[in-house]
Amino acid sequence: MTPDEKAGLRRAALAARDTIPAALRAAHAEAIAARLAALPAWSAARTVCTYVGVRSEVATLPLLARALAEGKRVAVPACAGEVLELVLIESERELAAARFGLLEPPLELRARAERRCPVEAVELFVVPGVAFDREGGRVGYGRGFYDRLLAGARPGVLRVGLAFEAQLAGQRLPAEAHDVPLDLVLTERAAYGPAAGWAVGSSP
Fold first, then answer.
1. How far is 100 from 117, CA to CA, in rounded Å?
2. What is the maximum span of the chain, computed from C-alpha positions, in angstroms?
3. Could you give the domains of the chain?
4. Is 25 within 8 Å of 53 (Cβ atoms)?
5. 15, 78, 166, 171: which has the highest count of C-beta atoms within 10 A?
6. Could you give the CA distance from residue 7 to residue 58 in angstroms, rounded to a whole number?
7. Do the beta carbons of residue 94 and residue 105 sit within 8 Å?
8. Alpha carbon separation from 201 to 19, 35, 186, 192 (Å, rounded)
9. Can you name the residues that pair with 88 across neighbouring β-strands?
10. Cβ(129)–Cβ(139) below 8 Å
11. 116 DSSP 8-state letter
């Protein structure tokens, strides 16, 4: 796939996501979060890393709150140059507006040693993306932040993408050498990917 073709794929997937009515997106996000929370791996994980959904992404603030209420340690990514560093938060109120329109832990929180979370400590990753396929392929926003982050994860950790069905490609997405595939892609309708057999209530 050429860079132009990949850019076109991103535009099409973003347009499809943006056209979902807000109320329907919220309902779908709730169904996706329930599917994730039903996974045995979610129940077993003591430390989870989740993105904070913005714009028309699958919303994750309720999921974040659920994880905290269940006593999990919750790490949220924050951009540091060209990499993501992980910061433990205790409430969504600790998030602040950041570049790219994201919500991230502010610098003063990131400076506290006890709030830093090594990537190797994470037992489950919840990952955003623009386009996905049914085999765990993912196309992100083009800067490679999550591929670099996931490359440092400990072996065997579960990597889960959250998406709306509208973001699924009709074919397998091309993968480059640096791309890190996902174990699961969860949508409002089903669970896809190599670990889909672990999912509860899926109907691919």
1. 22
2. 45
3. 3-198 (3.40.50.10420)
4. no
5. 78
6. 21
7. yes
8. 26, 7, 11, 12
9. 75
10. yes
11. B
DSSP state of 186: E
* Per-position pLDDT tens, the chain of length 204: 677 778 888 999 999 999 999 999 999 999 999 999 999 999 999 999 999 999 999 999 999 999 999 999 999 999 998 899 999 999 999 999 988 888 999 999 999 999 999 999 999 999 999 999 999 999 998 788 999 999 999 999 999 999 999 999 988 888 777 889 999 999 999 999 999 876 554 443
Phi/psi of residue 107, nearest 5 degrees = -60, -40
92: its two tokens: 């969504």
Q: Is 169 helix (H, G, I), strand (E, B) or coil?
A: coil
Give the pairing of strands 73-80 and 83-89.
Answer: antiparallel
